[in-house]
Each structure stands twice: as structure tokens, then as C-alpha cells.
Amino acid sequence: MPVNLSDYLREAARETPDAVALSEPRSRRELTWAELDAWVDRVAQTLLGQGLVAGHRVALVMTNGIDLCVAYLAVLRGGLVAVPINPQAPAREIGRVVADCQPKVIVTDAAAAAQVRQADTTGALIAVHRVAPEAGELTFDALQERRSGQVPMAPPDAESLAVVLYTSGASALPRGVQLTHRALIANIEQVGRIEPPVIGPGDVVLGLLPLFHVYGLNAVLGQALRERARVVLVESFDPDAVLRLIADERITVLPVAPPVISAWARHENVREALAGARVVLSGAAALDPDLALRFEEVSGHRVEQGYGLTEASPVVTTTLVDIEAPREPYTVGWPVPGVEVEVRDSLGQQADPGDPAQVWIRGDNLFSGYWPDGAGGPGDDGWYATGDIGIIDAHGALALVDRLREIVIVSGFNVYPTEVEEIVAHTQGVAQVAVVGMPDEHTGEAVVAFVVPEEETADEQGLIEAVEAVCRENLARFKRPTRIVVAAGLPHSPTGKVAKGRLRELARETP
Known about the structure:
GMP Synthetase, Chain A, domain 3; about 500 residues; about 25% strand; about 30% helix; 5-stranded mixed beta sheet; Rossmann fold
């Protein structure tokens, strides 16, 4: 069993050195397992040559591609801690993460260099890739030339921290989820025990999911490392282009999010393009049952679903655990081997079958609490309360009903309403604001903002445009409200809290 996640790569390079590991169609590049392993060694040596030691953080603000995979695996091989960040995040968000985790090095590329430079990155060395360096910066290539002569040897401790992934939780600001090598490897092995395999040695895997998200990082890249499957890395989603790529590259495993299913369900050539696919996986957000059925009718492929969260590295359940068992369209499958799932009532007792209650999970794949002190992690007994509400149906499958927390999940990414409200509240002319999530066919959920103007005679369209401008400047695209409703006031509960249930009703009633 590997101790460091990069050990999977070492084994693949030794046993299948000439097989292709990664393909990048946009640049027509590819690496064999031996080439990838050697490159990861060089970059790990480089980082250690900069004076970094085990436990130091390295932020990766990069788009999907071979270079990001190399940088990520090199960080782990050197015993360092990777902090993947959304390359489309605005400078404010990048600066907040950097201030929180204090990375020694930030590696970025042309897609994100501008935001990184605008952010407060005091104390961090910036290494840019495929863009001209500014004063005080290094290029990623030049950084590699400064490598040390030492062989990168990570501490042989599976409990050492591997990744900090920032995700919105029960507080207004995103928190860093601490994932150890033990947690990452455990989930890879748990999924690897499913038969037939989710990803097998002969598979070609679509690398469309962003690698700053745990789904793409560990459920796709990590699983492919274990199985020595080739990953075809895609920078962005274009329905036609990706379908052509799937056919041209003979891709067999398609891990995607619901927006991709939605786009393909309306595409006339999807059945032909996916003729060689073995499995279609949807995760990161809830998939509408009617959409899943429509996609199956159009494509000829049943969509396999799952449930996971960053704190679980991420896979908790999947319909692939028992592909022959009866299933209802609203379920997300059965626990993967090695993971326990219970639904418990408010007293902590297991709920009766069919009764909704909070989902609790336990397994070696769970995180070690939130950065930096490990607060909020699993209890002493190993169980973790997810904040999600679910039921166990008659066939033992989990179905999700609701969330205790106010998180809105847009295309698989968590958005905490308070974070959006904080930004909108600073818009000139806004007196009050409340944000809710609403179902959306394309993204699972969408952000809706209700704003109350400071003056009754305010120009509604002008106020909406002002809110949109502030959100564009300060929020990542998926966090921005897709609808802004100007209201005379906000409804409140008897205790004085904003009645967000009523706001959701108003959103449904408002065209």
C-alpha cells in the first residue's frame, strides 16, 4: 500500500514505463509513465532546492493540463502540501486563501497570472508558466533549472498532510479541508475495490473536471494513477468539441458534473460520439432524475451517480457498488467498500428506514479537520456529521433530501450565501440583501439575490447592474447571482431571522 500518493506514479513508471499516462490535446503533448515520473522528480528537487521543507504549502493556481498534474505530484513527492486554487477566482478570493495558508511558492499560468499578481501574496515566491515573468518572479521552467541534487524523499508517514482544499462550510468564509495521504489513498483504494472497476487499467479517462476540485483531483487523477489509466486533460467544456474528442481519443470513462449531462442531453450526435464509452459518471452535485432519464434515452448510456464531499476525499456512495440492484432514480447509491453511512435523528439515534435524518459517515478517507488546527473534524469515534439530510431506501441505497446548512451547490462547487451577501451589501444603493439557492437545470442550483434599495424611488435596473458589476469584480463566476430581485423588504421569522424559505417561494413565483 502506498504511503505517499505519488508512490502510485513510481510503481506505474517501474512496471509500465512506456504506456501513455497523460494526454493534452490542445498542445498535442503526452507523457509516458516513465517521463511523468522523471519530470515529477525534477520539479520536486526544484522545490526542495528553494529551501522548502516538509509541511510547507505550495499554491497551484493553474488550468487543467499536464503541467498542473506534474506540479501537484511533485509537491506531494517532496513532502510538501498542495493548495489547489480556482484559476478563475478573482484576486480577492486568491488573496484570502493565500493569507490563510501562507504558501511559500505560488505556481500560476497565463489564465490566472493577472489575478495572482493583483492579490496580496506577500512572502510567497511566484513562478509563472507560459507567461512573461514580472520583477521578482520566476518562470516555471527556470524554477526547474534550480533544482537541488537531493533525491526527493517525503517523510514515510501516511498521516502527513497532502492537500488543503478550500470549500465553503458552515461559516461565511471558505475553510481549508485538510486531507492527508492516508485519506486520499484510502478513498482511491475504496473505489478501487468496486467490481467491475470504475476505472480499469485499459481505460482512457476524460480529464474535464477541474483539478482544483477534489472530484477531479482524487476521484479522477488519483484513481487513474492507481489503475495506470490514461487521462485526456481538457481545459474547458465545449459540448461539440468534447464529444469529438471523446470519439477521436476513444475515451471510455466519462466523469462529469450535471451541467455536462444537461448539455449533452440536447445534443443530436451524443449517441454516436459516446458509442465507445464504457461508463458515464455524474457527481459533485445532484442530478435531476428527469434529466438522467432524458440523457439515457438520447445517448443509450445510463448515468451512474454518487455522493461525496471534500471532507471524504471525496467518494462516499455510488450506484456502481451494485449495478444489478433495484434502484430508484433519486438515489445516489450504496457506500463504497470501507465507508460506513448512517442517517441519525436529532438525538443521535439511527432513523427508521425511510425517515429523513442527517447523514453521518465514517472511514479512513475522512479529513483531519479544518486548517490550521484541525477543528471540526470527525469525532473520537471516527464519525462525521455531513450536514446533509438523507434517507436509506428499501434497497439500502442513500437518497439525499436536503441540507442543514445553507450552502448552494452550483455545478458541484459550494457557495455560501453569506459570502455573496457580504459582497452585494457593499454595493452603493443596497440597504439589505439575502441570497438563496434555487434549482437550475444546467447547474443543479443557481444563486438568487434579493436586494432592498436604500430609497423607494431607486432605479431598479440601475441597481441590478451595479450589483452585477460588484459581483463580477469580487466573486468567482459560479458564485455570482444569476438572478437579482429588487424587493421592497425581506420577510423575517418570529425570531427576527430572514425567512429564506419564503424567499425561495418568492423566487419560484417571480418570473
